[in-house]
Specification:
alpha/beta; Rossmann fold; 2 domains; 15 helices; globular
Length: 403
Amino acid sequence: MKIWIISEVYYPDEAGTAYYMTRIAEHFSKTYQVGVISGMPKYNARGIPVPRSESLNGVEIKRCLDSTLNKNIFMFRLVNVFISSFSILLKALLNIKKGDIVYVVTSPPLLPFVIGFVCKVRGSRFLLRVDDVYPEVFVATGFLKKGSQLDLLLVAANSFLYKKADLIFVLGRDMARLAEKKAMYQAHKIKIIPNWSDSDCIYSEHKDKNSLLTELSLVDKFIVQCAGNMGRAQAVETIFYAAERLLNNRNIHFLFIGSGQKNNWMKRRKEERKLTNITIIGQRSRDEQNIFLNACDISVATLLPGMTGAGVPSRIYNVMAAGKPIIAVASAESEISLVVSEEKIGWVVSPSNPDELAEKILEAYSDPLGLEKMGKKARQLSETKYSVQTMLEKYDRVFEELI
């Protein structure tokens, strides 16, 4: 029996899913025989030559040829999805055997269907890791009209997929509710295991010592930071509109760190509105996290209204490790909002209410002692409830029962 982890992205890519799947695979390799089938590097490691097949840290890695066209262009992204999924299908058919356990990520959306087919053919157990829920992500980001024929077709297809999975791993409670509905209320299949914080290598530092803020000449400002993916699912517009309302407060500055489909809009808006209280810089590498996550007084995490249950920004756990309070610009029912409100480590704001966001930022700015208390609580949670050890132990318990 072998555990196969199927992911479009894997090491040496470091962003999001690639990082988590690499860490999970290497952890399992201490106890089980583990193989990975993935595409070639396409994010921070794009263009770096890697072997098609290698053994690394106890994991047998098999990489497939795929397309690395610009993912921010929709048609190019579709080409990437089809080529990558087809390549992984062929590799999976050649390697997965009867009795193996197959753990596959839901992104790109075609991938779990082809792997579900392989598991059916080979007699393997089919485990689904839900990073994004489809077609809800397409509807929320405007690619698909809710109730359209294509939407209904995708709803039915994904419901079939969830029903056929042996186990479904989700990242939050909001996602669990959505997954349970798709699986026709087979609650016993759903396992909630959030992503974790890297509290072993990210720690809290006062921003007066921060090299990035020194470089940007922003050390003396109250910094509101948004770091991570600036894609279609993020409500970055709300943050910009709040920044416009606070333009006359020269002590408050907004720092955006990351890349994505909305970057061009952000740069245009800043220029057109002459928003001198906004700084936009590109994506930073994972090994710089301790620097850029500490380059703020408070962090903002965003999700569009329709994204509740369809995705959970994993960046919030490392923000907590850096000891920063969080403003969750998201639905009150979303996992990020639930964490922030239940643990009392920040504020929750509707993703369509920039006035309220501006008010909460002013409230945070006027209460430095309250911010410090929230930051310490966030750091404590990152070391305990949301630590890597806690989450990997949850995986261990599930797989011990499964095997």
